[in-house]
Amino acid sequence: MEGAKSYAWRRALIWVLIFLKVEGYFVDITYVEDAVAKGAVCLDGSPPAYHLSPGFGSGVNNWLVQIEGGGWCNNVTTCLARKVTRLGSSKQMVKQLAFSGILSNTPPLNPDFYNWNKVKVRYCDGSSFTGDVERVDPVTNLHYRGARVWLAIMEDLLARGMDKAENALLSGCSAGGLTSLLHCDNFRALLPTGANVKCLSDAGYFINVKDITGTAHIAAFFDDVVTTHGSAKNLPSFCTSRMALGLCLFPQYLVQQIQTPLFILNAAYDSWQIKNILAPGVADPHGTWHDCKLDIKQCSSSQLQIMQGFRTEFLDVLAELGSSSSRGMFINSCYAHCQSEMQETWLASNSPMLQNTTIGKAVGDWFYGRSAFQKIDCPYPCDSTCHNRIFEDYSAA
Ligand SMILES: *[C@@H]1O[C@H](CO)[C@@H](O)[C@H](O)[C@H]1NC(C)=O
Ligand SMILES: *[C@@H]1O[C@H](CO)[C@@H](O)[C@H](O)[C@H]1NC(C)=O
């Protein structure tokens, strides 16, 4: 009896430990109150925020700054809707966030970054930290101040010791992956000259392609984002001087000029891009793509053919990155979006691999210069290591 009891108890403990490992550990929020005086605020005027897990041991002077994602708002209607959510107001944010994957503090789960200062910057401006409009409409009370938020948070982190950084990595996923790319050189410039500074963009390589009806849907959307948020002066001038402003949110027109070492991690069939760029709802009024967008296994052969075409375009514009060994690349053929923040895709026994290498190892090797990594997967469905996303059907009810 005793033996069976303690066996059951031990089993329960193991499950708790596994659960803790998978879920990560919780880190408290820090509000940057003094940013408010600088007008560096969330859409609703509340202070911006981040979560900081201090570095330890040999990591005390190393900084990982990870930017939260969450799309964009492109006009007053969508920004008003966002203003009352965690993506537009720090009043709506949870006080603790779970850190896992690239933010894990456990050596076997995150061997190269576990003991760094790890920061998760909350996203509450809706413009990938590019907006800056002085005027606040008293009717909507919307603040378009993403670029000021970026600077206020960086100043706060520099004052907390990031000014002594020896190693630093700016990273982020989705809209945060785009932020990492947009602010890469500017992050570099804020840090000590002798520091080893690099940028990782996870699922941030949004491409300028037409949707399934031939409409330039995402280009029009990005154009609205830039106009609404007054982003022009905060986008790289080498782009804004040559191109329509809205185009200067697309990595393909920016990466060539980025000087700081940059790693692009992206699925070639990025599920957000398939759902919102290739086959957005407005382009599919009869819902022909509905099931396929929820689960790639449900796509018809003609839909898969269109998705192969999307991958070809993706790889074409990815070539803008060039082949310098400072540029890292992990482009797998999965139906996924964001692979660095979850333990199961970052580094686990069954996580995605390219040439037998996990994302966590590829990024670590590239960051520390142990080996270059520039790999592109064979086309879907050749990769058996994928964790393909299957989405809930929210429209069913
Ligand atoms: C705002 O943007 C959304 C999403 O693109 C669109 O559906 C809506 O019509 C736009 N509203 C206005 C007032 O332009
Ligand atoms: C892949 O890596 C594992 C562990 O590092 C190793 O045991 C295995 O032999 C490798 N497989 C191939 C095909 O290289």
TrEMBL record:
GO terms for cellular component: plant-type cell wall. It comes from the Eukaryota. Its main location: secreted. One of its GO terms (biological process) is cell wall organization. GO terms for molecular function: pectin acetylesterase activity. The keyword Repeat does not apply. Keywords: Cell wall, Cell wall biogenesis/degradation, Hydrolase, Secreted, Signal. Belongs to the pectinacetylesterase family. The keyword Hydrolase applies. It is found in: Secreted, Cell wall. Its EC number is 3.1.1.-. Residues 1-24 form the signal peptide. Hydrolyzes acetyl esters in homogalacturonan regions of pectin. In type I primary cell wall, galacturonic acid residues of pectin can be acetylated at the O-2 and O-3 positions. Decreasing the degree of acetylation of pectin gels in vitro alters their physical properties. This is Pectin acetylesterase. Pfam families: PAE (PF03283).
